[in-house]
């Protein structure tokens, strides 16, 4: 039983990270209708920028995370301006290929600048605490707590502020949003900024537990795709719920099925979903 | 008609060059590079058939390539099947699996299809990577035999292997050529241009997409099997997304949805890669942006751009006589007016 609850907690941690990544991905999909394959590279860049800010510039962990969110957010905006904006009228095939180009470029870039080695990120929150007989590090609590706070903030931002409402309006209908005077360019840039910061935050939170390396984004991005298909492409609550579902099934699967193949669980879920419902769960009809 | 004859001439010259290559260039390194790029070309033709002519981006093709390669390796080394039987079985096995995957995957469209196949490709990669006892995992798979003799033909020397691969490449190009200019090929293009319209015209899109997908997987697995027998060492890397990216680069540089594209693109990019070899792991620093810029500014590739240029010139030539006539009439009439003026004056 104790093992079970411990695994649930692990699932909660992993699920928080997945949800943050999937949120960024689903926001971009909602606005531009492109599956941003380069999102995993943003995640990876987030990990590296935080690490560099901590080790090279000597910033404390919290500040380094903020710097990294800003930097990767800007990188997202650049991506939108330089690549996805010029491709807005191109066939959908082109966006995807361009995204893969960016992904591989950023990966090679990280390898060029920081090397291919696996690096550990120090954290001031490495202490172990035990609550009700369960042991977990403070870092894990931090992940769960900050993910929940960010999700609430994001929700308030989207529902209560004008910019948030314009993002939702554009996701619902791009031309309609344009007609009522929303600057769709600005909103698209804003969305990429948010999406990049969320990826950087997720990476900075997860890195002390995992490691920082050029390929760290691969599995995460693939799983984020699984999540947004699970939760409905472009749906924000769907991304959160999907993230936690995947986190739980992975940590339980790793314990009770096989640790080696735990990464396949996500893809197995995806294959099953798309086999039964080719347009994803909760697909809007006549999209 | 002249253009057609011209194209035939081009094809004949290129084929002759390919055939004479080992005689002209005795450097065994270049021969190796040529052979390997022919293998890539076969795989890229597979991708081109489905992405270029049918309009679906499959990101699982590196997986199918690796599967063909590993199937050949496992069948010859672990099971002990004679080479050519294993060769046929490897392709058949991969194609069959591709058919099953296609049956399910093709129910999805556009983004979902790309994501689905991306995941399928990754599953193939993970299975190869993790299933140590069968595939050798990260240590790789060694000891794959070279192609066995067929009667008096022996494939032990690099030159012989070059011709073997070239033979398969010619076969694939021939099939592609016949296919693209057939009604079936037109059907695929119709699906690419508008699936709904194709459906309205009474085309069974599912059946056609599946056929195109299966054939495309077959080409790719054929390339994989050739790769295994030529390189004779396999690592899980060949199933990885970066191989997929290489295929896409070859295809896009050459021209997606053109017959010459895979040959032009693969040759050019392979040649460039050889020049940039000092970059090694960092070559993506250059190729990543190249691909992205290409897709933004020149999405038709070299062959596609050439075809467009030719079409434009042909159009201009078609309009030329009319324009000349109009100009002549104008000249005559103004001359007439001039003469009248002269008479009056």
From TrEMBL, chain A:
Keywords: Amino-acid transport, Cell membrane, Membrane, Transmembrane, Transmembrane helix, Transport. The keyword Protein biosynthesis does not apply. It is a multi-pass membrane protein. Belongs to the binding-protein-dependent transport system permease family. LivHM subfamily. The chain crosses the membrane at residues 12-31, 61-85, 97-116, 128-158, 187-213, 220-244, 264-283. Its main location: membrane. It comes from Geobacillus proteiniphilus. The keyword Repressor does not apply. Pfam families: BPD_transp_2 (PF02653). It is found in: Cell membrane. This is Branched-chain amino acid ABC transporter permease.
UniProtKB/TrEMBL annotation, chain B:
Pfam families: BPD_transp_2 (PF02653). GO terms for molecular function: branched-chain amino acid transmembrane transporter activity. The chain crosses the membrane at residues 30-50, 57-77, 83-105, 112-128, 162-180, 210-235, 247-272, 284-307. It is found in: Cell membrane. One of its GO terms (cellular component) is plasma membrane. Its main location: membrane. It is a multi-pass membrane protein. Keywords: Cell membrane, Membrane, Transmembrane, Transmembrane helix. The keyword Isomerase does not apply. CDD domains: TM_PBP1_LivM_like. The keyword Membrane applies. This is Branched-chain amino acid ABC transporter permease. It comes from Geobacillus proteiniphilus.
């Amino acid at each position: 039983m104790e093992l079970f609850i411990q695994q649930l907690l692990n699932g909660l941690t992993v699920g928080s990270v997945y949800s943050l990544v999937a949120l960024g991905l689903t926001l971009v999909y909602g606005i531009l209708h492109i599956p941003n394959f380069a999102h995993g590279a943003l995640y990876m860049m987030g990990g590296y920028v935080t690490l560099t800010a901590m080790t090279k510039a000597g910033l404390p962990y919290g500040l380094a995370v903020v710097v990294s969110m800003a930097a990767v957010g800007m990188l997202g905006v650049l991506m939108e301006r330089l690549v996805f904006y010029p491709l807005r009228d191109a066939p959908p095939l082109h966006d995807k290929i361009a995204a893969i180009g960016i992904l591989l470029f950023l990966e090679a870039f990280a390898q060029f600048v920081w090397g291919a080695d696996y690096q550990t990120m120090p954290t001031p929150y490495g202490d172990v605490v035990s609550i009700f007989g369960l042991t977990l590090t403070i870092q894990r609590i931090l992940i769960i707590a900050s993910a929940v706070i960010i999700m609430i903030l994001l929700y308030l931002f989207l529902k209560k502020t004008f910019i948030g409402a314009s993002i939702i309006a554009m996701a619902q209908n791009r031309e309609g949003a344009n007609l009522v005077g929303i600057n769709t360019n600005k909103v698209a840039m804003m969305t990429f900024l948010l999406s990049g910061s969320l990826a950087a935050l997720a990476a900075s939170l997860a890195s002390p537990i995992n490691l920082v390396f050029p390929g760290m984004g691969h599995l995460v991005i693939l799983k984020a795709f699984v999540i947004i298909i699970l939760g409905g492409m472009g749906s924000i609550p769907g991304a959160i719920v999907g993230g936690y579902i995947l986190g739980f099934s992975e940590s339980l699967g790793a314990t009770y099925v096989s640790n080696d193949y735990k990464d396949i669980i996500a893809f197995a879920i995806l294959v099953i979903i798309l086999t039964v419902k080719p347009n994803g769960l909760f697909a809007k009809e006549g999209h | 008609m002249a253009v057609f004859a011209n194209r035939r001439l081009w094809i004949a010259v290129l084929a002759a060059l390919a055939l004479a290559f080992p005689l002209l260039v005795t450097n065994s390194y270049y021969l190796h590079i040529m052979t390997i790029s022919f293998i890539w070309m076969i795989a890229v033709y597979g991708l081109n058939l489905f992405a270029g002519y049918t309009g679906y981006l499959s990101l699982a093709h590196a997986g199918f390539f690796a599967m063909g390669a590993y199937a050949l390796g496992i069948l010859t080394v672990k099971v002990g099947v004679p080479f050519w039987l294993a060769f046929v079985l490897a392709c058949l096995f991969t194609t069959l699996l591709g058919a099953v995957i296609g049956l399910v995957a093709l129910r999805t469209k556009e983004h979902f299809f790309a994501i689905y196949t991306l995941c399928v490709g990754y599953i193939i990669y993970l299975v190869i990577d993790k299933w140590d006892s069968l595939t050798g995992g990260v240590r790789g798979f060694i000891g794959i035999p070279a192609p066995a003799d067929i009667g008096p033909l022996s494939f032990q020397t690099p030159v012989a292997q070059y011709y073997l691969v070239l033979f398969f490449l010619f076969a694939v190009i021939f099939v592609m050529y016949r296919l693209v200019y057939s009604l079936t090929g037109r059907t695929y293009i119709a699906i690419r241009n508008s699936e709904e319209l194709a459906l309205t015209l009474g085309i069974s899109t599912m059946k056609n997409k599946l056929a195109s997908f299966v054939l495309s997987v077959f080409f790719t697995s054929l390339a994989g099997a050739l790769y295994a027998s030529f390189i004779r060492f396999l690592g899980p890397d060949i199933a990885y997304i970066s191989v997929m990216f290489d295929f896409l680069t070859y295809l896009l540089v050459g021209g997606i949805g053109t017959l010459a594209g895979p040959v032009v693109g693969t040759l050019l990019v392979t040649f460039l890669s050889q020049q940039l070899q000092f970059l090694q792991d960092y070559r993506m620093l250059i190729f990543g942006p190249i691909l992205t810029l290409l897709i933004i500014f020149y999405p038709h590739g070299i062959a596609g751009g050439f075809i467009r240029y030719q079409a434009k010139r042909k159009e201009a030539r078609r309009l030329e006589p009319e324009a000349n006539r109009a100009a002549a009439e104008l000249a005559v009439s103004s001359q007439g007016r001039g003469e009248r003026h002269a008479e009056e004056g």
